[in-house]
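so my prof wants the structure for this chain in the tokens format not the other one, which i didnt know existed until like an hour ago. anyway here's the sequence
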Amino acid sequence: MDRKRATLTGLAAILLWSTMVGLIRSVSEGLGPVGGAAMIYTVSGLLCLVTVGFPDLRRFSTRYL
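here's what i got, hopefully its the right format
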């Protein structure tokens, strides 16, 4: 990952982290506390896969997996 993309990813992380309380509150009103948190963390995981990419599992040791 180049420096510019890493900086943008870091800024996006700070922005998402700072809005987390309000986001959880508004989403939890519609989906409930557990459903809202599950939806938020699922979307953030997908966003992480899009920005960073899926890891190459062949590079991990078999002991780790």
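also thought this was worth mentioning. Helices lie at 3-18, 20-31, 33-52.
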